[in-house]
Amino acid sequence: LSTGKQVWDFDKLMESQMIFASSFCGIDLGIYINGGEECSVKIIGKSGFPVSRKIERDIEKCIQRGEYTRCIWSGYHEKANMGGIKLLYQQELYRQACNGLSGMEAQVTCTIKEGERLFEDTLYKLGCDISSGMNIKLYDCGTKISIFDKQGKFYPYDKLLIACCISELKKGNDIALDFDAPKVIDALASKYQGKVYRYNNGLENDPKVMELARSQYWIRDGIMLAIKLLSYLKESGKTISELCEEVPDFAVVTRDFHLNEKPANIMRILGAKYKNYGNGIVINFDDKCMLIRPQKQGKSIKMMAEAYNTETAAALCDEIEKELSNLD
Questions:
Q1: CA nearest to 123, candidates 40, 44, 228
Q2: How far, in Å, CA of 21 to CA of 89, rounded?
């Protein structure tokens, strides 16, 4: 307010709701403050996507130098109460199951009780029995879920996301995914005669791809993903186990590798040898791949190995670590 800018206050939201609010309201820049034991501040860019690292650095530098814009008393604006976005958000949740969820069963857990109540209320109003069935865990951020079925089998977020993508491809719908999303879906797209587009967060992307990504809220929202999956199960008559059987076996192993120098130097060397997609280096093999990107803070890089099982992905991490040790 003291800068003379108009402030929209969305009240208390999960991160997934803030992403929806930013996209729905056409906000170019938003600030999400997460309290608790470890307080954090996240900058959210246009349509709810992350901002570029350059913007983050520029903001950090301004804070360090104490460069703050100040307005005179007459330049202050009234804070706009935007709490009503929660009702619009719930309407979007309903849209993920246009034919309702009568006959379906699912229980919900989330450590954020407001998120749990919202999730349960939405399922209940869609006709879903929330007293029995599979257990859906909503992560605190609201952007991811995992599932335990009635038999106690665990389904992680990545597998559920890919299962939902397959269901969309079968309907003839193209998909727009973040560069970090599992690569296994790219190989499956041609099988279902669909297309999977990739975008780099914080970088220039094809406007058509970003418009598609913006419209697919369920990829960035755990509750929407869960409702969409339940809707598919109702339409197909399948169980969650049968739906996920269509997803090939794959595993993702993530590691941090600490360096003795700035990550930029290592990334420059790797970029000359492997393909640099702007947000990271990708190393492709016949049956596995590796994504390498610098961490935002400190002298370290993040490795994400994807393969048909955990052992192979871990072995790929070991192999790349050896190569990095020789470069560092």
A1: 228
A2: 8
**Count of CB atoms within 10 A of residue 122's CB?**
23
4 to 8, 71, 307, 309: CA distances (angstroms) = 13, 5, 51, 54
User: What does the pLDDT average to over 268-284?
Assistant: 80
* Dist CA 318 CA 169 (whole Å): 35
The 10s digit of each residue's pLDDT in 91-144 is 999 999 999 999 999 999 999 999 999 999 999 999 999 999 999 999 989 999
Residue with tokens 């208390």: 12
> How large a percentage of the chain has pLDDT more than 70?
98
DSSP tag of 101? -
Cα separation, 185 vs 162, in Å, equals 6
Contact 129, 105 (CB under 8 A): yes
Cβ-in-10-Å burial (0-12, 13-18, 19+) of 53 comes to middle
Quick one: which of 249, 255, 266, 325 has its CA closest to 290? Answer: 255
In this prediction, residues 217-246 reach a mean pLDDT of 95
**pTM, to two decimals:** 0.86
Q: To 5 degrees, how large is the angle CA 264–CA 304–CA 137?
A: 130
Which residue matches tokens 């520029």? 58
Query: Does 204 score more than 90 pLDDT?
Result: no
Q: How confident is the model at residue 233 (pLDDT cuts 50, 70, 90)?
A: very high
What number is the average pLDDT over the span 22-35?
88
Cβ partners under 8 Å of residue 246, min gap 6? 163, 166
- What pLDDT was estimated at residue 202? 66
CA distances from 249 to 25, 112, 148, 188, 317 (A): 39, 32, 18, 12, 18
Phi, psi of 251 (to 5 degrees): -140, 150
Q: At what angle do helices 85-95 and 222-236 cross, to 10 degrees?
A: 30
